[in-house]
């Protein structure tokens, strides 16, 4: 089926882009969130596509998309990972077992959906971005637990115009680095 072949080809391009991005300093991929939390047979792919340690000490959790699903689906994925992160910080046993102390002690976490501009065509989700940010801010503001005193934001981001990822013209590492630097908000 041509549709399935196209879907598989796009997923491979997304994985290839992800693997190129993690060659840059401060970038990591497939960071587990809840793999095996419920049982050894569930939640096998509960991983954040990309995590970026920013120079200011904040972290970005990024759901990377090229064509798969849709922006709303991607937003729900990254929000799920954000909620699991909040849970990890809230439960002392998880905090104590975590090897990445810096990540669990971050003062700011940015949840992002990153995709080409075309991915967002026909979607007007600026209102959702605002509502999610209001909800995250209100929830974290009301926390008494010191471990939950941090900031979390959400946003839809796009690659700069002209940045294309395709099988026949996969971007060079320098183009990927520039595209990441020049990405910006959708709304």
Descriptive overview:
With 187 residues, the protein is an alpha/beta fold. The protein is globular. The chain has helices at 2-21, 71-90, 92-97, 101-104, 126-141, 173-181, and strands at residues 27-32, 47-53, 59-64, 108-115, 151-158, 184-185.
Number of strands: 6
Rg is 17 Å
Strand order of the largest sheet: 1-2-3-4-5-6
In whole angstroms, how far apart are the ends?
Answer: 36 Å
**In sequence order, what are the helices and strands, one letter per element?**
HEEEHHHEHEHE
Count of helices?
A: 6
Low-confidence runs of at least 5 consecutive residues: none
What about the largest sheet? Answer: 6 strands, mixed
Percent of residues in helices comes to 40-55%
Instruction: Give the helix/strand class.
Output: alpha/beta
Shape: globular
Average pLDDT reading:
88
Q: State which percent range the strand residues make up.
A: 15-25%
Quaternary assembly: single chain
Structural topology:
Blueprint: H1 2-21, E1 27-32, E2 47-53, E3 59-64, H2 71-90, H3 92-97, H4 101-104, E4 108-115, H5 126-141, E5 151-158, H6 173-181, E6 184-185
Parallel strand pairs: 3-4, 4-5
Antiparallel strand pairs: 1-2, 2-3, 5-6
Provide a compact summary of the structure.
This protein has 187 residues and is an alpha/beta fold.
Which tags fit this structure?
187 residues; alpha/beta; six-stranded mixed beta sheet; 20% strand; globular
């Amino acid at each position: 089926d041509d549709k399935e072949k196209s879907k598989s080809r796009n997923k491979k391009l997304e994985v290839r882009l992800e693997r190129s991005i993690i060659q840059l300093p401060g970038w990591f991929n497939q960071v587990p969130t809840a793999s095996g939390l419920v049982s050894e047979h569930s939640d096998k792919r509960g991983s954040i596509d990309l995590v970026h340690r920013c120079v200011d000490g904040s972290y970005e959790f990024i759901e990377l998309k090229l064509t798969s699903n849709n922006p709303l689906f991607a937003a729900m994925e990254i929000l799920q990972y954000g909620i699991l992160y909040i849970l990890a910080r809230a439960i002392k046993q998880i905090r104590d077992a975590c090897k990445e102390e810096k990540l669990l002690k971050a003062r700011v976490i940015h949840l992002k959906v990153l995709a080409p501009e075309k991915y967002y065509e026909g979607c007007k989700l600026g209102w959702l971005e605002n509502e999610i940010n209001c909800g995250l801010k209100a929830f974290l503001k009301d926390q008494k637990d010191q471990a939950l005193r941090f900031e979390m934001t959400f946003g839809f981001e796009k690659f700069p115009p002209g940045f294309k990822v395709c099988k026949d013209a996969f971007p060079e590492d320098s183009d990927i680095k520039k595209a990441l630097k020049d990405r910006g908000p959708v709304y």
